Amino acid sequence: MVFSALTCVIYFQGLDPLLKVQYFHSLSALREQTDVLSLADLQSVVDHVASQTDQQSKLIGGLQAINEAVAAGDANGLLHQLRDPALGLGAALLDSGMILEADAALLLSLLRELRAERAAQDGTELWLDDVQVLQRTFRLIAYLENLISGKN
After folding, report:
1. How far is residue 85's CA from residue 24's CA, in Å, rounded to a whole number?
2. Which residue stretches of the chain have pLDDT < 50?
3. Whole-number pLDDT of residue 71
């Protein structure tokens, strides 16, 4: 009801009726901090929710692209998708040298196996947690390689 009233009286740029629940939670959190909300406060909530929704959409798109590359057996495409800034791990993994181009086949193989296990268990595809587990694994491998070679 409040949502309908606000959209009739005041125009908020970027207001999406499908995000009512997110607006409510953000407004509730802001309301705990102050008794009076200005129009600028309300617009900042709308902008914040839109930004979060955009980030989530990009993350989902990045994971979908990884799943597509894994399904297609495209190692180079997989490495390219891992560099997607929306995933938050590309630069740390690839640009630091923790995952090299030569590791692409191994990475693809590991993700294909994990994806097959996921599909057999519950019919889902790879999630961000799955990719992050591999990130930690490659960090550990790089650390161990440095220890062995004496680079510590």
Report:
1. 29
2. none
3. 92
